[in-house]
Specification:
The chain folds into two domains: 141 residues, no CATH class; 122 residues, 3-Layer(aba) Sandwich (Chemotaxis protein chec), CATH 3.40.1550.10. Helices cover 50% and strands 18% of the residues. The protein contains twelve helices and eight strands. The radius of gyration is 19 Å and the shape is globular.
Length: 293
């Protein structure tokens, strides 16, 4: 997730504007190829094996390569080769900003060095995107939030970014969390998580953004925000929250329950607890992630 959080870092330094960042992200989006696609192209995996690993990602919070190696579909050296192929130019975001004239090469180099130092990253290479490195990035990202965010909410937000990468696309940049008392919803889907902890999670976006989000997630083209597009948003949130409950059960022995997702469209939502809104910029628009704790 180096590229995603690098964009937020640049915004925080006033090095670029949100509009410039969105244009740069749009310029890079077509160059990101899924690991499974590369594995098939190289003859490392069959289509059936790729499909099985993709399915398992909806049941386990693990990377594609991790599952493929566990199931003996890939050797470690093959996975390393795939990661290098996929991410050999992973700083396409920085390059796009230079190509568009928003940064000079000297400015990009300076920002990369500062970004690396602030996040305690030994080097910015594909193989260094370890869980520890990502954990540091998320924690540093959340430092801009008002007040201290509980540990379980940090875990939840980290998984949000993982789910967006896996199921929607990695061509996004999150903006710093904003604490709110109320929120004006547009196309909003909400789901409550209960048990020893409570989280109310929502995804909200404009209708045209919702159509593109649903199209990406369902891997089919929606022309309007109909019942099938709505169901896709519900399914994404339910899938993500299901993974969170599995994680908490496995790592914390904490049994959580999920209520059915529901829509809150064109209405003002008032929160009883502390709620954070995280804007996530995609080339097709902004998705707002709401986490009430």
């Amino acid at each position: 997730m180096f590229a995603q959080f690098f964009g937020n870092f640049l915004l925080g330094k006033d090095a670029v504007t949100p509009e410039q960042l969105a244009k740069a992200i749009a310029q890079t989006q077509s160059t990101h190829v899924k690991l499974g696609t590369i594995a098939m192209q190289k003859g490392y995996m069959t289509a059936a094996e790729v499909d099985e690993v993709c399915f398992m990602q909806t049941r386990e919070d693990k990377r594609f390569g991790e599952i493929a190696v566990e199931r003996n579909y890939l050797f470690e050296d093959q996975l390393e080769d795939l990661l290098e192929t996929q991410n050999s130019n992973y700083l396409l975001l920085g390059q796009a900003l230079v190509d568009l004239g928003y940064l000079t090469n000297e400015e990009l180099e300076s920002h990369l060095i500062e970004y690396q130092a602030e996040n305690d990253l030994g080097s910015l290479s594909a193989g260094d995107e370890s869980d520890d490195a990502v954990e540091r990035l998320v924690e540093n990202f959340l430092e801009d939030a008002d007040g201290e965010i509980p540990d379980h909410a940090v875990i939840y937000i980290k998984l949000v970014f993982n789910s967006l990468v896996r199921f929607v696309g990695q061509d996004f940049t999150p903006l710093a969390p904003i604490e709110v008392d109320s929120y004006e919803a547009h196309c909003c889907v909400t789901q409550r998580i209960g048990g020893p902890i409570h989280i109310t999670a929502s995804l909200d976006m404009d209708e045209d953004v919702a159509i593109e989000f649903a199209s990406r997630y369902a891997d089919m083209e929606f022309d309007s925000f109909d019942e099938y597009a709505e169901a896709s948003l519900e399914d994404f949130l339910n899938l993500h929250n299901g993974l969170f409950t599995v994680n908490m059960s496995n790592s914390r022995a904490m049994e959580l329950s999920l209520e059915p997702p529901y829509h809150e469209d064109e209405t003002e939502i008032t929160f009883r607890g502390k709620c954070y809104v995280i804007p996530v910029i995609y080339p097709f628009g902004t998705v707002y992630v709401l986490v009430e704790i």
